[in-house]
Amino acid sequence: MDENDVKLRERITAVENGLINLGGRVDRIDDIVSSIREVVVELKQMRSDVNRIDRKVTDIENRPAKRWEAVVAAVIGAFAGGLGTALLTKMIGG
Hints:
Blueprint: H1 3-92
């Protein structure tokens, strides 16, 4: 075997070792990509949960305002009813 054959075999061996290392790196990259996909799925679920919680909080925040509106409507209704009764009483002569 001459010197060129030895150098060629060394280079081929080095290339083969490099390919083996690259294969391991590709496997690790595939694992990282899978992990990222899982994180994305979890983030989407968390966003959905946060939106649902946000709607619930908004509903809870609006409850006092709705109650206040109901109280004001009741007071106005009572006042209007009393005023109407007073006017009818005056008109009928009671």
